[in-house]
Amino acid sequence: MTDDNPAGERAPAGGGPEAVPDGGLSPAETLRMIQRQQEAARDATEPDGRLLFGVWGLAWLIGYLAMWTTARDTGSPEGWAGWVLAGCIVGAMAFTIVHSVSRTAGTRGASARIGAMYGWTWFLGFTTFGVLIGAMGDAGAPSEVIAIAANGVACLIVGIMYIAGGLLFEENRMSAVGAWMLVTACLAAFAGMPNTYLVMAVAGGGGFLVMAVVEQGIRARRRSPRVTGRTPGGGRDA
Amino acid sequence: MPDELDPVIHAPARLRVVASLAALGHGDEVAFPKLRKLLDMTAGNLSTHLRKLEDAGYVRVTKTHEGRMPATYLALTETGRTAFADYQAALMDLLKGAQG
Predict the structure, then answer these.
(1) What is the pLDDT of residues A99-127, one digit of tens each?
(2) B13 contacts chain A (CB < 8 A)
(3) Most buried of A41, A44, A64, A111 (most Cβ within 10 A)?
(4) Partner-chain contact A5 B41, CB within 8 Å
């Protein structure tokens, strides 16, 4: 609670006599303190990408593995596997919404607006996805065709949203994983009946988990002191 | 050489305020209670520091209403961002000087 407040309480008198050197902090300690504080500020105001991608990776991995293991014997997945997949997706969605809303509460401005629009686009995209797949079923499409469409379109949406996210948040690696998800869509489409689910679990779920690792890398890079001295408007991709 | 360091930012409590606000994106604002909780300061203490930073032109204070509740949002100005960048650059110079 009161870890570094005592120094803070003393500070109002500061700005005065040059003799008082910032409570004894050396330049290196001050820079570390700045980094810690900025990390805490980001944790309090931005969703943690590692958590979101990790949760989605696990949801796809578990859900599609259930579909694959039951489809291996009979040629099409068991009903309970469908419920496992649906439960994983709904759980990941609920987690994403609660986590993002609680982290960004109390902030406003361009980032909050863009983040909210980006989140809503995901929601609208997958709502449309559900309607399309349902309509295909109503029109009498065979289950294998529905499986190809459902798996391919899910990866298509994720791939395009990642590429768009990479552009929005200026993170090329996010776009690269998006491109990988588009490759996964093609692989899943041609993998055939039981194996299409294995592709979804390993390449699709794996793609999310790779993103979680990428996010970890981004954090580590932010932590390096070089980045804190960034120039305003600096393009770092030269 | 403390005289090279901006005295408005140099006070530890204000440095933490400025560092936190600088972590937000350009044009982003944070509500007073959220910032207070993040910094673990008392409301009075934080207000005092924010007034000094506002007087220096480093922080923009926006008072608004959310429904019927008054709300205060805080952001770093461009001047504040530049001052913070300069402050960090000065620290890095001191660090290099100490190592060299």
Answers:
(1) 999 999 999 999 889 988 998 999 999 99
(2) yes
(3) A64
(4) yes
